[in-house]
Amino acid sequence: MENTHNFILPKTNLIGIGAIKDLPNELLAWKLSKALIVTDKNMISLGYVENVEKILKNLFISYDIFDGILHPNPTVSFVEDGLSYFKKGLNVLRNYKLIISIGGGTNHDCAKAIAIVATNGGSIIDYEGYNKVTKPPLPQISINTTAGSGAELTMFAIIVDNSRKVKMTIASPFLTPYITVNDPIFMTTMPKEVTASSGFDVVSHAIEAYVSTEASPLTDSFALDAIRIAFEYLPRAYENGNDLEAKEKMMYANIMAAMAFNNAGLGYVHSMAHQLGGFYGQTHGCYNGILVPYVFEFNSASIPKQRIMKLCEAMGASTQDTSQAIDIIIDSIRRLTAKIEIPGKLREMGLKENDIETLSQNAMKDITVFTNPRKGSVEDFMSLFKSAY
Fold first, then answer.
1. Which residues are in the Fe-containing alcohol dehydrogenase-like C-terminal domain (predicted)?
2. Kind of pairing, strands 12-15 and 62-66?
3. Domains in the chain with CATH codes
């Protein structure tokens, strides 16, 4: 019986304190060409974009800067605004050969979407779902500043279609960036609330990848280590933004969790959180922090005992009783979210009871449902939303 697990990653990943110094060698292939930088005004004010500009100038790579990403949760309009840079006349200087995203997941996802439509045409809405992209997008260099969404190295892009109030999941191996840079020096300026939300996103990625129906020994090892690291170092990174050791550890946890979910998939936490983000536009990682305990309890009946025990151990506890292990896991997650001041209920983040049925129907359509360990119904989603309300 066949049992294959493909493992998809960017070609090159520059990782660690000072990793940005290795980027020039990786960009030699694009010497004398033109790049589009996709970023936001905050990255410019922090000086991160200027650092990359210096590298490009030294390699005689000309560039334009699209800084029209105005808030987290990238929208179809952001993508269209970025694409307008390709349409300003027929001058060869607009013939971009490379896209460079600088920032967190919002900027990387927006850059992926721009790169897709630039070579495939149409609207980004056309590519919602899995494997709808037929031509390679422009190659993307992702310079990451959060730990993190994992978007800098995955084959997914999440884009909000405001007309439907839906967060679209766009997935294709073609979306995988070509080169990534994860340098903790770029992460010390993260505000506490970003450290909390992006840090718990790491935890949710790792947990969902570990219990996924497509999990493998490779993804398991990355997921469990990401959980161990995050439970130890996320509170430290949250309390002290200048704790470079904690930032570096969370950077590694982010990378490992992203490698896990990029190849094992996610589950109901993300199918639900995507809908909440589409409706209310608040922080994705905080939605995850509220939802994980409820979804894990729902899924627990379909998770093998051995996996529950290993998950419990990764969070620093040990027991031989499955029921007790489930309780420990749920309690450990809630204690972690309390430490980093993530809200406890969805009503605190805008959820309206009247929206629950629509949110549940939309969640059933999200591609992340396919690898959830327990198969549910619209009614199950409604029950989960109500429990977390």
1. 195-389
2. unpaired
3. 12-187 (3.40.50.1970), 192-388 (1.20.1090.10)
